[in-house]
């Protein structure tokens, strides 16, 4: 336990809430922008080395070293073209038009919600790897209410959302309960419950009541129109709900008694217990809220995009949520921004694929690199801090190394 | 100074190494183009069998497996690649990561000005028909799905064609072959998920074994699929070769000496288990001796599902203006499904081979009906 790094360690010093001025945020913002720029640079390199024209020109260059300048010029020209094509398609696909923007927001909403679920657990010192499973059971519950019961328009939507939230909260709360009562580590239980969730969903999908009429495929009917989010100007109303959720998480963390307790437990569970706080309550509550937010993410997909439920309906949102929360430094605002960025990358990735022929894996590589570059300086800085404490030396060198 | 020299030396070595590679690649490439260009010229100019449609754009959307799944997305994608090669059409493609992207991805192909769009897998059924209804000028095909109502009438709009495959028929032949070849009197099968496109193989296989038992008074048992209960062994996963290997080893430990995995890439684990334990394998979707040649030695045969052919035909029809919404059903009769040539070590005697051919004819004639009991 003591050996593993606590999530708080990854969350840099955003906490001196007493005097939180803008300048204290600058290093974080700078590091993040730097990480994004670095990741895009590496991505550009990958685009270049996988471009056929560049490869051909390079082959020619090696075959005919005499015409070095001509082929070197070709390589530069084709590289520039390939990168320009790819990244302009990325930008166009993400924000270039009305439908593109809409797509970006639609894809951001579930990432933001599930990301908030991971972030709030981080703040209580819990690694919530289980957003995937929480979202999956949430999707099943929301979908089931959505396609089975025939209720009046407004009530049906509320009932479906409530079912999704309740299922997610139950699945998350289970983890908190296990940790509080038996000390079972949440990393293990959340990962295991992800698998359990998938098999639970598959079990129900095999039932006649969950299948489309006249079909044996493992896919439910789509939710009825009365259970889907109404659309205003092309955008479904789940998207503002994600922003509301972010506001609620901020309020819980910064303004409520529970938030104080969960941050205290996150900082030091033993001290909090000594101070008279119930860690049991905090663990169960925070994991239930985390699960509820993942369930909300599933509602965005199922009820916002009219999706039939399958075992893949939520995609990999639960795992992307972890990177979103990390990139957002486990703060509500950061998570919203990170969710928007990843949504834009996802929508832009489609544009790159469709019009520039860039493989979709590139976007995943860029996303992973962003997180890697964000996490790496933090780790290095932490390392520096430990060293400083031990040797009582100035850490100018380590700081230099970070930059 | 020393450092500079060292870097320079490394640089020179690297340059030499790269040059060596480059030259060799280049030579090979030169040979390839020479050897391959000749037959293409011959085939295209004198016969002129295939019309060219350089202005036609054929597009494809995968399901969440992606085009590199060594299974049905990939085989369908081969159809698109072949159409580009044979008919000179343009192409575009999008891979899906999760189901919520299907609609967006199909729309992005519409936005790219595609003339025909092929979607892969039943998960895209709803989004495909929605897009087809909205864009009547684009011809759509969907692999592994057809739109039928309760009475079996085709409900697809005029510009949407379902491509389905009666893989039960060749699986029946494979089951008969397995029953004839087994030493232990036990054969095994497993699937990826309990969905119709998977279980149709397993059911046909089991029916073939039953038929062999009836004909020859034997008692060969099938593990992994129960025709009555419509349930059996599944990996619940199409990706994990480890799970495929575990399930197959379980079947082998219960006495099976022939394994028929119907689980896409996960099934490769089944072949590995068969190889490790001296059992036989029967591959699915493509000829395993081509697509999984490392296991060719232990393959009796493969059940082939001609998705590439059907997809290419759909594109060609759309380009030629002869597209119809009549669902395509691959059968032994039209060659849309078939049994691959026997494996090199399968050692099938002429009698058995003749019997298989005879059974194939009987299925085509309708004397033997392959399907649910």
UniProtKB/TrEMBL annotation, chain A:
GO cellular component, one term: plasma membrane
One Pfam family of this chain: BPD_transp_2
Record flagged with keyword Transmembrane: yes
Locations listed in the record: Cell membrane
Signal peptide: none
Membrane-spanning parts: 32-49, 111-131, 151-175, 187-206, 226-253, 282-303, 309-328, 335-356, 362-380
Descriptive protein name: ABC transporter permease
Species of the source: Nocardioides humilatus
Lineage: Bacteria, Bacillati, Actinomycetota, Actinomycetes, Propionibacteriales
TrEMBL record, chain B:
CDD domains: PBP1_PrnA-like
Annotated stretches, region: Disordered: 23-51
UniProt KW keywords: Cell membrane, Lipoprotein, Membrane, Signal
InterPro entries membership: BMP_lipoprotein, Peripla_BP_I, PnrA-like
Basic and acidic residues composition-biased segments: 23-34
Record's keyword annotation contains Membrane: yes
Domain ABC transporter substrate-binding protein PnrA-like: 58-371
Listed Low complexity bias regions: 35-48
Pfam families documented for this protein: Bmp (PF02608)
Highest taxon, organism lineage: Bacteria
Family, similarity comment: Belongs to the BMP lipoprotein family.
PANTHER family hit by this protein: ABC TRANSPORTER GUANOSINE-BINDING PROTEIN NUPN (PTHR34296:SF2), TRANSCRIPTIONAL ACTIVATOR PROTEIN MED (PTHR34296)
Protein name: BMP family ABC transporter substrate-binding protein
Species of origin: Nocardioides humilatus
């Amino acid at each position: 336990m003591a050996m593993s790094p606590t999530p708080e360690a990854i969350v840099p010093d955003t906490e001196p809430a007493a005097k939180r001025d803008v300048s204290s945020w600058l290093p974080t913002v700078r590091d993040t922008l730097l990480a994004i720029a670095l990741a895009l640079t590496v991505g550009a390199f990958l685009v270049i080395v996988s471009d056929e024209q560049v490869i051909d020109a390079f082959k020619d260059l090696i075959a005919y070293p005499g015409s070095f300048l001509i082929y070197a010029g070709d390589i530069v020209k084709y590289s520039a073209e390939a990168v320009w094509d790819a990244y302009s398609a990325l930008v166009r696909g993400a924000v270039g038009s009305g439908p593109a923007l809409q797509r970006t927001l639609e894809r951001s909403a579930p990432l933001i919600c599930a990301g908030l679920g991971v972030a709030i657990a981080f703040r209580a010192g819990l690694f919530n790897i289980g957003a995937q499973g929480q979202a999956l059971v949430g999707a099943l519950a929301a979908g089931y209410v959505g396609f089975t019961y025939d209720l009046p328009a407004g009530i049906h939507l509320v009932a479906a959302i409530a079912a999704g939230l309740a299922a997610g909260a139950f699945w998350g709360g289970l983890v908190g309960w296990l940790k509080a009562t038996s000390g079972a580590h949440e990393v293990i239980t959340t990962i295991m419950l992800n698998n359990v969730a998938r098999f639970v969903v598959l079990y129900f999908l095999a039932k006649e009541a969950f299948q489309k009429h006249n079909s044996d495929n493992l896919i439910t009917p789509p939710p009825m129109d009365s259970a889907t989010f109404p659309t205003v100007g092309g955008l479904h109303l789940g998207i503002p709900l994600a922003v509301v959720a972010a506001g609620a998480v901020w309020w819980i963390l910064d303004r409520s008694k529970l938030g104080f307790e969960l941050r205290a437990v996150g900082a030091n569970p033993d001290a909090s217990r000594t101070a008279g706080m119930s860690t049991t309550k905090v663990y169960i509550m925070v994991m239930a809220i985390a699960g509820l937010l993942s369930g909300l993410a599933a509602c965005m997909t199922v009820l916002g995009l009219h999706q039939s439920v399958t075992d893949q309906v939520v995609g990999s949102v639960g795992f992307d949520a972890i990177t979103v929360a990390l990139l957002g430094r486990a703060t509500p605002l950061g998570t919203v921004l990170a969710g928007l960025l990843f949504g834009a990358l996802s929508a832009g990735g489609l544009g790159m694929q469709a019009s520039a022929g860039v493989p979709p894996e590139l976007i995943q590589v860029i996303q992973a690199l962003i997180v890697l570059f964000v996490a790496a300086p933090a780790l290095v800085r932490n390392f520096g801090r430990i060293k400083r404490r031990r040797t009582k030396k100035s850490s100018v060198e380590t700081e230099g190394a970070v930059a | 100074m020393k450092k500079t020299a060292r870097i320079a030396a490394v640089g020179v070595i690297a340059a030499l190494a790269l040059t060596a590679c480059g030259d060799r690649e280049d030579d090979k490439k030169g040979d390839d183009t020479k050897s391959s260009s000749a037959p293409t010229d011959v085939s295209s100019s004198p016969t002129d069998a295939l019309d060219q449609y350089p202005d036609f754009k054929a597009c494809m959307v995968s399901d969440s497996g992606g085009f590199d799944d060594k299974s049905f997305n990939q085989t369908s994608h081969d159809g698109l690649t072949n159409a580009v090669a044979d008919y000179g059409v343009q192409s575009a493609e999008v891979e899906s990561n999760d189901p919520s992207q299907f609609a967006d991805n199909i729309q992005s192909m519409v936005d790219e000005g595609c003339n025909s769009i092929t979607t892969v897998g039943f998960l895209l059924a709803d989004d495909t028909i929605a897009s087809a209804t909205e864009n009547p000028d684009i011809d759509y095909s969907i692999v592994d799905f057809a739109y039928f109502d309760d009475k079996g009438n085709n409900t697809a709009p005029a510009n949407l064609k379902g491509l389905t495959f009666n893989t039960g028929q060749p699986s029946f032949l494979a089951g008969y072959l397995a029953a004839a070849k087994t030493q232990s009197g036990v054969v095994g099968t497993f699937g990826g998920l309990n969905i119709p496109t998977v279980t149709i193989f397993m059911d046909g296989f089991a029916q073939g074994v039953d038929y062999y038992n009836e004909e020859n008074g034997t008692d060969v048992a099938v593990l992994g699929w129960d025709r009555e209960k419509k349930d059996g062994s599944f990996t619940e996963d199409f990706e994990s070769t480890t799970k495929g290997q575990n399930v197959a080893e379980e079947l082998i430990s219960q006495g099976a000496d022939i394994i028929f995995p119907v689980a896409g890439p996960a099934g490769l684990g089944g072949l590995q288990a068969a190889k490790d334990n001296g059992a036989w394998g029967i591959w699915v979707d493509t000829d395993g001796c081509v697509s999984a040649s490392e296991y060719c030695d232990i393959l009796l045969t493969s059940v082939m599902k001609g998705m590439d052919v059907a997809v290419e035909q759909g594109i060609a029809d759309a380009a030629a203006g002869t597209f119809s919404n009549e669902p395509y059903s691959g059968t032994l009769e039209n060659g849309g499904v078939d049994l691959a040539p026997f494996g090199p070590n399968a050692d099938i005697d002429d009698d058995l081979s003749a019997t298989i051919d005879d059974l194939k004819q009987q299925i085509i004639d309708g004397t033997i009906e392959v399907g649910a009991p």
